[in-house]
Predict the structure.
Amino acid sequence: MKFNLKIMTFACCLLLMAGCKKTEENFEPPYPEGKSPLGIILNDTELPTPAEGTPGTTVTISGTGLLPYKDKLTFLFNGEPAEVTEITATGITAKVPDNASSGVTSVMVGDNIVFGPVFKVQGLISFDPTFRVVNGTNNQIYQAFKTSEGKYFFLGSFTNYDNKGVVVPINRIVRTSLDGDMDRTLRSGTAANGTLSSMVAVGNQYIIAGGFGGYNQRNENISNLTRINNNGTIDTMGISTFVPVGKNDTIKYFPRFNAGADGFIDKVYSHQGKIIATGNFRYYVSRRYDQPNFYETKDTVILDSTEVRQIMRLNADGTLDKSYRFNTGTNRSLSGGNGYVNSFMHTDVANEGKLLLFGSFSTFDDAPAGYLVRLNADGTRDNTFNTGSGTNLEIAYANYNASTNKYLISGRFRTYNGVTSPGIALLNADGTIDNGFVPQAVTGGFIRGARQLSDGLIVVFGDFKKYGNYTRNGFMVLKPNGELAPGYNATGIFNGYLNDIIETTSADGKRALLLIGGFNRFDNVEVNNITRIIIE
């Protein structure tokens, strides 16, 4: 009986296997022999005629199988429908629509889409041919600091700049001409062993900040903040440290700027001879070099700390300024924000020294904040800055333009003081919303940042795909009222984010924007974290 059961089980398995095999034999791919759906083929290896042009240009693209659908199809330039002027057995001719941008052409019939070649739409933005950086950096750039000598310091997390750090790494700091040529006279050595995010000039020296614990030969006793000389060397001092009895006296060298923080420092500013630092830290730290360890057996460094949250002001020698946002009774700073805090410091005469704070905090100094507050130059909250309830979610990017007297904020929020604001809002100097700026919603992603230029145009970047009903590939330029600026929105795919947009000029005197950040594509061209564009 058991034997017969085994035979029956084996027979059933054979039948099941046969059934599976038959199913596999009858399987057919949805498009046999690799045929395109609908039978339409656009030649994506042959350039359009012409290969580029302005809106209104008549463009012909080679293709077959179009005639049967001549009354049903839609032709698109990078997602924007175009007027079709002719369809033949060998191709299609259409006019570039007003709001088209550079990208892939396509034909759509119902839910079916067939892609064609790339067409470049010409506009008022183009790459600056006088900018001499070709290969960019191998990681992001946080800041472009312009010196009084007419040069740039670039700071970030990179170890290579324009392929000049292949043999000897260029660690997070480089000095260049205004057109990007590397200045090899900078003697930074191995430079920072971690990210540099910000720097500021103090006399003929510089304070640098970020997330690092060593700089060149001083590979310890640094806590995210130090001072370097104009030539890039670290500013050091000789100290006769504690020496146990019976041992020879020695001099050791330490960073002269004896100050730091226990967490990442985003920004540093100079104001009235003092230094303000903001970031994700909780303690101010300094070091003492004249005391022994517990057993007095060797010289040592003693680390002191004082609770100072997110914002601190330092004297020129690095000591903590306890007259700024500090409670001497508890020996700690005011509480600051209940979430991440970023900052922007005013340098314009009307608001000099005031600090705009934004981020992911809903309270600041234990009072409601709505993710945005402004401090007076003395560190107290500026109650004339009227944000109302603020935004409903965090603010990722904020800045101020002294030419227009406007703030521009952007992030994942959807309202500002109860007014619909889909990720971007323009504010008056007093913090109230500018109702003349009416942005449209973005889809396919988010606005990651924006900056208003001195003429009122607004540059916006992110990972969005559409602005209102128009295709925009992560980069666009708006008018002060929120509408797309005609002629400025022909650029193709942007991929990444910008840490800064700097208004400048090209080597031949044209208006230009220097873009830095963490991005690898602009106008569908591969770039590495830095480029300069002409904006007409």
Summary: Confidence is low (pLDDT under 50) at residues 1-35.
